[in-house]
């Protein structure tokens, strides 16, 4: 298994291009199932999660081609052969459950494996099921699979979600595009990836209003047609690389970045002593003085501080002046990076969903191991700021969500290399 070797090397300067959003792409790809016409995505990120979604769609009979070195994904679902998403694929990636809403809407039936436990918590699907049942679906759990059907088709309804789940919002919105009548989804998630999905669905002929607010209204139509859509910038990759100059010093311009994608995160960086400025090409980030100042963080649904940047922010707080409290409110088990950061000399105490971090002047390189995607990149950030060498193993987590991480960081002066394993 490959690992990444990072050697602390002082301030970082230059530009980093930010890719299209993994999480947007993973919900835009299943949207192809809603129509028999082709759907083409541009600005797609080159990631193993995208390959997993490609394999899932192909297993359903969709045609999926990767063009222009993977940046363009051309899909067609005119000849689907299956409505079953197998456990073998779904267990690899929770976002596989996003085929449920589209399949049910177009074919009146779908069988989708429950994803099962994952490293960052239980992550059930009850909110997806409740929303689709409100649209008239009948859903049963048998042998680990959700068996969903809507013999007479889905019917629009007013539904309020108990929690603003991102995936449930996406599944319900996609399903409602082909339902009879109007659906009003209340307490919907407001993430930029949902806005991006709705923009794509609208190009396909869907009638939707209210995306980006907590009430989304969908007027069902008889059919959707083909479209071409550019995937929105990845705000989590953006936020991750914004932390590179914050933790190492220097100044980096993140090409394609926009403040509206990372408002609450940038506000925290500003409070910690890191300036974020919009330029005509993206966002320019620089550490204002010497060490950053400790700030408290609470993760929340968008527009709050994203849970997907909590681990990386913790790496920064490990080197801050003072004590910070990081509260994780989205996932129940998302501090696995903490003991690894402690191996690098960080002072962190975890109690339930709260981590208290007392900054140290300098972290020390160490062999560390990541248990999920965002945890692994937080260890790379910590390694960039540490004295000596840090080896991050289990790099396959990183490949799920960060394209060309070595090349991008090398480009701004980091000492980082990928070591090939057996
Ligand atoms: C998406 C993102 C993920 C991000 C998360 C929160 C994708 C592919 N993934 O995941 O990177 O960390 O949003 O911003 O877009 N829950 C339930 N029942 C459900 C659904 C969710 O209890 O039916 C719970 C989950 O266990 C979790 C919380 O709600 O504790 C948030 O989950 P959700 O917003 O659904 O996240 P995902 O869509 O899985």
Which helices and strands occur, and which strands form pairs?
Elements: E1 3-7, E2 12-17, H1 22-28, E3 39-42, H2 48-59, E4 63-67, E5 72-76, E6 84-85, H3 87-90, H4 100-107, E7 109-113, H5 126-134, E8 138-142, E9 145-149, E10 158-160, H6 166-176, E11 182-186, H7 192-203, E12 207-209, E13 215-219, E14 227-230, H8 235-248, E15 250-255, H9 263-272, E16 274-278, E17 282-287, E18 297-298, H10 310-317, E19 323-327, H11 337-343, E20 347-351, E21 354-358, E22 367-369, H12 373-385, E23 389-393, H13 396-401, H14 405-410, E24 415-419
Parallel strand pairs: 2-15, 3-14, 6-7, 10-11, 18-19, 22-23
Antiparallel strand pairs: 1-23, 1-24, 3-5, 4-5, 7-9, 8-9, 11-13, 12-13, 15-17, 16-17, 19-21, 20-21
Helix pairs in contact: 1-7, 4-6, 5-6, 6-7, 8-10, 8-12, 10-12
The structure holds uridine-diphosphate-N-acetylglucosamine.
